[in-house]
Design brief:
Blueprint lengths: L3 H20 L4 H9 L1 H5 L8 H6 L19 E5 L4 E6 L8 E2 L1 E2 L9 E2 L3 E6 L2
Antiparallel strand pairs: 1-2, 1-6, 2-4, 3-5
Amino acid sequence: MQTFQELVSSRRTWIDEVLKPWCATAKRIDLILAEQEWLNLAGQAAPELTLWLWAWNRFPELCAEGLQTINETREIVIETCQGSKYSGFPDARESRQGELVLVQVNGAMTAPILIDDILAVQSCE
């Protein structure tokens, strides 16, 4: 690399081709470790707007183009690796560090569901 523009381009490529895909497959414990070093890894980007959003992107039903948080606008059904099912609307404020909280139709909130325990996410629409 000889120019600043080449350096910027190489970093953007690393983020798009290495960092984002890693977030989409990493275990929660590794994501938490990465969050502690996020400024060194990703620069001035806030972990909740990058690392955690990229991690939740492994489940497209939780994300929407242009949103910088989990999509709260539609009811979903979560199936866990243990075979349990939960339905409700994701609560972006309560869902932190790889723990998803749903607000059920009756207003009750689920206990946090770990990202590693989620097998599938489906929209109720």
